[in-house]
Amino acid sequence: MAAVGVAAALGVTTLAACGTEEIRDAAGKSGEPAPKTVTLVSHDSFNASKEVLAEFTAQTGLTVKVLKSGDAGEAVNKEILTKGSPQGDVFFGVDNTLLSRALDNGIFVPYEAKGLDRVPAELRLDKEHRVTPVDSGDICVNYDKKYFADKKLSPPQTFDDLAKPEYKNLLVVENPERSSPGLGFLLGTAARYGDDGWVDYWKKLKANGVKTVDSWELAYNQEFSGSAGGKKAKGDRPLVVSYASSPPVEVLYAEPQPKEAPTGVSTGTCFRQTEFAGLLNGAKNPEGGKKLIDFLISKKFQDDMPLQMFVNPVVKDATLPELFTKHGVVVDKPQTMAPAKIAEKRDQWIQQWSSLVLK
Length: 359
Fold this sequence. Notes:
Oligomer: single chain
Number of helices: 15
Distance between the termini: 29 Å
Helix content: 25-40%
Order of helices and strands: HEHEHEHEEHHEHEHHEHEHHHEHH
Strand content: 15-25%
Radius of gyration: 20 Å
């Protein structure tokens, strides 16, 4: 999820496991060494602990190489352009807002992961098992608590609130053509106001001074006044489209850690997101890729994930850390949309949005 970009901004680096054990491919020519590396292509926000990836190496003899390819939308588009000759073996980070685009372009091949029965059926959106659910989260507007306390102004809680005069020139959003949280927020407004009503809503947001930037990293770490990065950059927008799990990030990497997160979540502005991993069509190490997908839904990886990527695990036996549960927000009634409708309307809505907001 893009939320982990906060961690990147604060100096946390992605670590790939190291392994030297040579393994042999029983299905190949006698004595021919199998690949010792499996390449995971992802958006820029993938992160995993050194210890967890080292365990994968210990189990399989394979080293994980992580290749980051920009924001989720950009990363998916790169894989579409290289279909059949992919950059790696597994792709992680395509979400429900972009899933149909990836599936329709044939960038994945079917593989039913071991342990998939531990993932709720409602998250398994592809019956052909071309993708495997790995995490879920909620795209929501975040607010700078100090700004609203200083102004003695209640922070907005709903989509309707964001268009009110008292919040004029306060909100920054991401371009849905380039950014997955930006697209999730657009879909959230379409789910809330309907196929036609969302256009009128965005007219109100535009008149109320909404600002648009290309990526989550720019919005959250440059424009948003409530984040650690935004404070350094002297951001002046106290409202930003981010995630319900962003507040724990601000607590975890602050020194000293505050008792309360400096940012809050407008829970009436949320859209539910699920991210998937899939075996790439034309992968050089498909067997290693299958093992990696199995590992992504193992309890070990799922337990590690919340404080690495600040998303919710999808397996039923995973455990959330206390910091995550204490400072994160549970969204009871997020906006959702059927994948078929997203596939039908997404590109049309993005074009309409661009014509309305960017011109």
